[in-house]
User: Which sequence fits this backbone?
């Protein structure tokens, strides 16, 4: 393996990994606050990608402009799913011990509905969007860097910083962190916990609206990509530590580089085996993640 | 109490299943009924571990695929009867399940579930991309066909018409129910109940949770494997997507949870309700509406988790076997003083 190919693989892996981290941010936020593992996480990303694709195919809207639609749309979807589907479970569990498995099954139901609704509406065909920047690259030290990927990477870093800042300094952010620490104490301090849950879930999905639109220029869309992105996001979150925002980005970068370097040695499909294997090994060795505690 | 309820509900169902093929001789109906029984069998095998240990596995399809491939390959390669191949495949699935379970049973709840998906997906992706392994022709995503021997041969597990297949899976379903019944009343069953109720408490009493959970998993993997081998014989075809894809794992889980996990009849009830719904949707709307039955499964799963966490068997049980009326006399402190 010559160093040029390897450094190209590493750079590509870093760029894609940043996007993986960005996609996983929402999952980490939702789990950190609500202790709900959203099985439908990847499905929502897939939904955002279809939304962006539709706007491009029907109205000719550039995917980057479609962010103006996909982000509020996904926020609305997340808000609705939380308030209609998941909140009855959380209300019921108030008296019982929290049962994360029920929440997982519930969101698995959401996954079945979302994935198959899209499959029903659009069929199993692979779709892709070609824009002016799909094949554009800049050269740094003789290595081509795909601009669409670079923008996705930059957005992930930016969103991670913005989200951390917002959680730390805004009123809503403080309320979200308080609810994550202790739901009952937060409720007693006058925080509207159901609203916080709805907003958190909506926010976690809104991030997907952004990255769905950013992925569309260079990633083909099928109704079944949701699950693989969902599992990847979970791997990223576990790698980085559940609930940790910088951990999520770090986990994403690690996974991206790992996949991309592995793909240099074996076929891309076999590389998927390695990332699943990595997932199992990490969970068994260090269930709290690289940056998580306990 | 439980046994009598199982009989009250189960016996009429069993009798109905016995006479069904003689009342409606249409081969499409018999085939569809056999598929209901197949899913009931698979869900019951899934229930064996998940309903009693309380861990949701979404990777059980891997066991079905392992045993299915083993039985087909032993038949095509060595000419071994699929009946023996079925058992050997089941044993192989059980043998693989033990180290996997040993590593993953330490994980709780959702972590276990996601790990089980990862395990099954590794197996499926590997199989889909492997045409030959150590000289064994696996043929990747293309799948394997079972060569017809021509006519009916009990030894080769091949029959003309669907009727024998129907009765074989009916017998397997009754077998897995009997096994569940025996397991529930055995030492293993009580240990599992204790572990499910309070793992630390059970451990303090000297029950080794890992050991008994693994026993249940191995049994479940073995039974799931038999089902996978049956499926391969019924269709005379096996491929990674249908026999070890995540859809099969989800089907087994959804049917058991909707029907009632941790009960003998629950998984069968789930299959009886859900599979015909999916089949009817496919038959009436044709192949052009992809995935509609899975949307229905998803909605039913959500409703079950929210409103029937014990499955639809719970209200049925209350209705069929009402609790004996007990009379309560309220004694006020004054009356006690007066006595």
Assistant:
């Amino acid at each position: 393996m010559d160093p040029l190919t390897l450094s190209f693989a590493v750079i590509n892996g870093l760029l894609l990994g940043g996007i993986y981290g960005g996609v996983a941010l929402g999952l980490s936020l939702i789990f950190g606050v609500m202790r709900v593992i959203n099985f439908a996480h990847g499905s929502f990303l897939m939904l955002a990608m279809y939304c962006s694709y539709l706007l491009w195919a029907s109205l000719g809207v550039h995917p980057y402009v479609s962010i103006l639609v996909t982000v509020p749309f996904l926020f609305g979807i997340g808000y609705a799913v939380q308030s209609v589907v998941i909140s009855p479970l959380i209300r019921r569990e108030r008296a019982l011990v929290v049962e994360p498995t029920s929440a997982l099954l519930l969101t698995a139901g959401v996954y079945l509905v979302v994935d198959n609704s899209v499959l029903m509406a659009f069929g199993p065909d692979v779709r892709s969007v070609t824009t002016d920047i799909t094949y554009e690259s800049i050269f740094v030290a003789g290595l081509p860097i795909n601009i669409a990927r670079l923008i996705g990477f930059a957005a992930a870093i930016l969103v991670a910083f913005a989200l951390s800042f917002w959680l730390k300094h805004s009123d809503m952010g403080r309320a979200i962190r308080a609810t994550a620490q202790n739901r009952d104490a937060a409720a007693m301090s006058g925080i509207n916990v159901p609203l916080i849950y709805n907003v958190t879930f909506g926010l976690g999905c809104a991030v997907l609206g952004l990255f769905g639109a950013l992925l569309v220029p260079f990633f083909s869309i099928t109704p079944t990509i949701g699950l693989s992105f969902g599992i990847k996001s979970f791997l990223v979150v576990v790698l980085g530590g559940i609930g940790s925002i910088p951990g999520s980005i770090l986990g994403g970068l690690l996974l991206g580089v790992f996949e991309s370097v592995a793909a240099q040695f074996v076929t891309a499909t076999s590389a998927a085996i390695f990332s699943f294997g990595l997932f199992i090994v990490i969970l068994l060795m260090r269930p709290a993640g690289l940056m998580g505690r306990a | 109490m439980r046994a009598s309820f199982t009989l009250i509900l189960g016996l009429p169902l069993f009798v109905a299943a016995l006479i069904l093929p003689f009342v409606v001789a249409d081969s499409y109906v018999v085939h569809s009924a056999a598929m209901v029984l197949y899913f009931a069998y698979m869900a019951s095998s899934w229930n064996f571990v998940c309903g009693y240990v309380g861990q949701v596995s979404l990777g059980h399809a891997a066991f079905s695929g392992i045993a299915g491939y083993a039985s087909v390959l032993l038949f095509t390669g060595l000419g071994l009867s699929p009946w023996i191949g079925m058992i050997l495949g089941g044993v192989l699935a059980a043998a693989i399940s033990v180290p996997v379970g040993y590593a993953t049973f330490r994980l709780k709840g959702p972590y276990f579930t996601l790990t089980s998906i990862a395990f099954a997906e590794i197996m499926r992706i590997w199989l889909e991309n492997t045409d030959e392994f150590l000289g064994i022709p696996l043929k990747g995503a293309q799948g394997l066909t079972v060569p017809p021997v021509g006519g009916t041969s009990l030894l080769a597990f091949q029959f003309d018409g669907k009727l024998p297949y129907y009765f074989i899976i009916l017998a397997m379903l009754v077998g897995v129910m009997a096994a569940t019944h025996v397991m529930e009343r055995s030492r293993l069953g009580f240990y599992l109940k204790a572990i499910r109720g309070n793992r630390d408490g059970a451990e303090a009493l000297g029950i080794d949770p890992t050991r008994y959970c693994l026993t249940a998993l191995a049994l479940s993997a073995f039974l799931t494997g038999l089902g996978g081998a049956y499926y391969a014989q019924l269709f005379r075809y096996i491929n990674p997507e249908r026999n070890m894809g995540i859809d099969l794992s989800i089907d087994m889980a959804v049917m058991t949870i909707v029907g009632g996990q941790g009960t003998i009849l629950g998984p069968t009830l789930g299959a009886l309700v859900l599979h015909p719904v999916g089949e009817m949707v496919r038959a009436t709307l044709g192949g052009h509406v992809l995935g509609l039955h899975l949307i229905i499964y998803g909605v039913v799963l959500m409703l079950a988790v929210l409103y029937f966490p014990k499955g639809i068997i719970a209200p049925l049980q209350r209705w069929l076997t009402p609790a004996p009326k007990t009379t309560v006399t309220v004694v006020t402190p004054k009356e006690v003083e007066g006595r």
Remarks:
- Residues 2-322 of chain B form one domain.
